[in-house]
Input
Amino acid sequence: MSTTEKRAGQEAFHQQLDGLRPRLLAFARLQLGDESQAEDLVQEALIGAWEGVERFDGRARLETWVFSILKHKLVDEIRHRRREQSTGFDPDDMPDVEGLFNPRAHWLPAARPKKWQEPEQACLQDGFWQVFDFCVLHLPESTARVFSMRELMGLETAEICAALGISEQNCWVILHRARLKLRACLENGWFDKGEDNAVL
Amino acid sequence: MRSCKRATELMSQQLDRELSNTERFSLKAHLMMCRHCRHCDIHFKALHRFSETRAQANESEKD
Output
C-alpha cells in the first residue's frame, strides 16, 4: 500500500470513529451524570480504538467494538467512584410503583397494560427513540443507571452489584420498578397515541 | 399466585436470572389467567429488545 493510500485509509477510519462520538457521549453522560468526565472517557475510548485498530478484526461492527472499549472504561470509573465513596448512588432512590396496584396487588384500572400495536415496528418510526430516551432519563437517576448498565450495557446483575456495592436482590427490585415505569411511560408517550401524533 | 404485582416481579427477574421451576410454573399459570399481565410480559420483553437496538446505535439515530 502506498503512503497516500495508507493516509487516505487512516483519514476514513478517523472520520468513522469521530462519527460515533455523539452516541458515545450520550451514553457516557447517562452513566456518569457528569459532562466533562463523560467527554474525557469518550476521548480515551476513541484514542484507545485508534491505537488498537489492529485488534479490531472487522467481524464485529466498528460501533459495537468501540462501545465495548467505552463500557470497560465506564465500569472502571463507576468502581473507582464507589471506592472513593462518591458515587452519589442511592439504592433507595427508586420510582414508586404502589400507585399501579390496589391493596390486593391487582392492577388499578388506569394502570392496566394495554395491547401495543406492532411494537417491533416502533423502533423504525421517527421520534420513537426520543420518547424512549425521555422515558429512561426521567427515571430517578440511580434507577436509570442500573437499568442502562443492565439493558444498554448488557452487564450481568452480579457485575452491577459489584460495581455499585448493592445486593443482587436490590438490583432486581430496582430493575423491576424501572421496567414498570418505562413500560407505562412508553405506553403513554408512544403506543397509546398512535404513530402520527406521538408527542411528549 | 394471585398477585399481579408479584407476577410482574417474576416477569422482570426472568430477564435477569433463571427462574426456579416453581416460579416459572406459577408465573405461567398467572399469565394464562390474566390478560393485563400477558400484555405486561410482552412489554418487558419488548423493552429488552428496544434497549439492545438502542445500544447498537442503529441508523435511526438522530444525533
Summary: DSSP finds three helices and no strands in chain B.
